Amino acid sequence: MSTLITNIAELMTQDLEHRVLKNAAVVVEGERIAWLGSAADAPAADDAVDAGGRAVLPGWVDSHTHLVFAGDRTAEFEARMAGESYSAGGIAVTMNATRRASDFDLTRLAMARVSEAVSQGTTYLETKTGYGLDVEHEARSARIASTVADEVTYLGAHLVPAGADAEAYTDLVCGPMLDAVRPYVRWADVFCEEGAFTAEQSRRVLEACRAAGLGIRVHGNQLGEGPGVQLAVELGAASVDHVNYLSARDVAALAESWSGWNADSGTGVRGTVATCLPACDLSTRQPLAPGRELLDAGVQVALASNCNPGTSYTSSMAFNVATAVLQMRLSVHEAVRAATYGGALALHREVGHDADGVRAVGSLAVGHRADLHMLNAPSATHLAYRPGMPLTYAVWRAGVRAR
Ligand SMILES: N=CN[C@@H](CCC(=O)O)C(=O)O
Ligand SMILES: [Zn+2]
Questions:
Q1: Number of the ligand closest to the Cα of 77
Q2: Does this complex have an ipTM over 0.85?
Q3: C-beta atoms surrounding 92 within 10 Å
Q4: Which of 234, 230, 243 is nearest to 280 (CA)?
Q5: Among 53, 280, 334, 339, which is most exposed with the fewest C-beta within 10 angstroms?
Q6: Residues with a CB atom less than 6 Å from ligand 1
Q7: Domains contained in the chain, CATH given
């Protein structure tokens, strides 16, 4: 079964050549993109969809969310808006509500959040554990996450639960808890920040998880200039996320991590993606991450929602893209790229064609996964020009119409 989507005013491919095609068409065949190019040259297909002069771009790749949780933190948000500052301690409130929730409720809540994201154009999504914080509840969160998300990250090292000894808890995260979540996860993460895990504890967690075969990522430099970025680069993490407070040395280390990467061919040794989370920055009243400076330094950047009940209760990638353009001074093309190809790079899912057994996400090219986001607008520029507007018109996820 093939579908021709034609009369596309602007097709922003985010492929390696950064092509933006006018008057374009795409053919979707099963889960893959079978053809794309000028509408005038389009081949016949079983079915046709008239885009009516709308824009099409890759579905968002949200490489950083925390969707497996119960409860909400409205009171904490209100206090913050009244002048309180964010601290990691709020995680415990969500941990308590999450532990109390039944499997059914936790699954239902996570599924509903994924549906919200997909209805806004997200077609590939990572989510984390981190609100269980004991062996039983982290394993449960990982299992539930694996049924709702494309990629699952183990974040046992999110907070040391009250009453626990930090070193003993770190041992648990590196040992029995890791064993329990291992069947469900591909990644491990650590909140390396004052009030959460020290550099030494974070290193222990990341090394143990890497030895267990997991890819690693880091929450770093969110609340102050900390060791997170340097640790992430040193250990070869796929991404370091937040990156609000960076020294010149941090930016240089991130840039250096990409020195073995050929961005034109998308080959070589991947470095550490800097993942900016602008919605979180606004909701916590932190300075926006220096996305412009990172791009100018040659760092590969991703944008993600960080959807969670504490610091960023939104899965709107369009909101993040608009903020990145309006306030971080990325161009529309750069912001959309960071929210699609950048996220895929952060998840090591940017490559893969027909013969590879896994299809690339986050960019549009023949053989890639047919993850498409059609806007009710003639160009992607409208994402920033009309911020906050409901611009998602249609979504295909792995070739299936999801909206
Ligand atoms: N910073 C650490 N973790 C989450 C927030 C978790 C929470 O407050 O519930 C984040 O990415 O912002
Ligand atoms: Zn996070």
A1: 1
A2: yes
A3: 16
A4: 243
A5: 53
A6: 90-91, 94, 191, 219, 222, 280, 306, 308-311
A7: 2-59+353-401 (2.30.40.10), 69-330 (3.20.20.140)
Q: Which of 331, 327, 323, 273 is nearest to 302 (CA)?
A: 273
3-state secondary structure the chain: CEEEEEEEEEEECCCCCCCEEEEEEEEEECCEEEEEEEHHHCCCCCEEEEEEEEEEEECEEECCECCCCCCCCHHHHHHHHCCCCCCHHHHHHHHHHHHHCCHHHHHHHHHHHHHHHHHCCEEEEEEECCCCCCHHHHHHHHHHHHHHCCEEEEEEECCCCCCCCHHHHHHHHHCHHHHHHHHHCCEEEEEECCCCECHHHHHHHHHHHHHCCCEEEEEECCCCCCCHHHHHHHHCCCEEEECCCCCHHHHHHHHHHCCCEECCCCEECCCCEEEECHHHHHHCCCCCCCHHHHHHCCCCEEECCCEECCCECCCCHHHHHHHHHHCCCCCHHHHHHHHCHHHHHHCCCCCCCHHHCCCCCCCCCCCCECCEEEECCCCCCHHHHCCCCCCEEEEEECCEECC
Q: What tokens appear for 143 in the block?
A: 């299992």
244 is in an annotated binding site: no
Instruction: Look up tokens 């996400």; give the residue.
Output: 361
Q: What is the pLDDT along the chain (403 residues), one digit of tens a residue?
A: 999 999 999 999 999 999 999 999 999 999 999 999 999 999 999 999 999 999 999 999 999 999 999 999 999 999 999 999 999 989 999 999 999 999 999 999 999 999 999 999 999 999 999 999 999 999 999 999 999 999 999 999 999 999 999 999 999 999 999 999 999 999 999 999 999 999 999 999 999 999 999 999 999 999 999 999 999 999 999 999 999 999 999 999 999 999 999 999 999 999 999 999 999 999 999 999 999 999 999 999 999 999 999 999 999 999 999 999 999 999 999 999 999 999 999 999 999 998 888 999 999 999 999 999 999 999 999 999 999 999 999 999 999 999 9
The reply to whether 96 sits in an annotated binding site is no
Q: What are phi and psi of 60, to 5 degrees?
A: -65, 145
Q: Is 310 annotated as a binding residue?
A: yes
CB 236 within 8 A of CB 272: yes
